[in-house]
Here is the input.
Amino acid sequence: MDTLFIKNMVCDRCILVVQNELDKLDIAVKNIKLGEVTLARELTTDERDGLEKTLVPLGFQVIDDRKGRTIEKIKNVIIDLVHHQESGLKSNLSDVLADKLNHDYNYLSNLFSEVEGTTIEKYFIAQKIEKVKELLVYDELSLSEIAFRLNYSSVAYLSNQFKKVTGLTPSHFKQIREEKRKPLDKV
Here is the structure.
């Protein structure tokens, strides 16, 4: 059995793309999840090289070093929390990461900052703001519902963080997005 760690595998569509490429290469998969593929057997060097050549043009990369794997695991936990969990984060991010990765949070934080050049907190905030943008564009939830879903203490805090990251207020962002959209009959 062989486990591969794959960089930039961050959504369900990514899982489907990687699964499809593995199927094309006739590589049997036991389990596949964000950033990680468990294979039924060890790959030969030629198979591994072929897989890497197939994945790189699609924006993926097989990660061989331990630090890189840990960084991808951190990112995937955060992405899963922000983009795929309906209830949002109900405990400290540091506790969640330490628990899921079986490492001390200080080690994870220092490693992430060293390799990525930013903090885990800033990465987490950036992911949350991307989710806010997505929810604003869908126009199904009010700003207070978005704040609640993403576990912000208040709408004001969400708005301030959004403006700090994007330079725009959430309402201005939404207005700009709506102005750029054309009705189907005008396309």
About this structure: The two ends are 51 Å apart (CA to CA). The mean pLDDT is 88. The chain has nine helices and four strands.
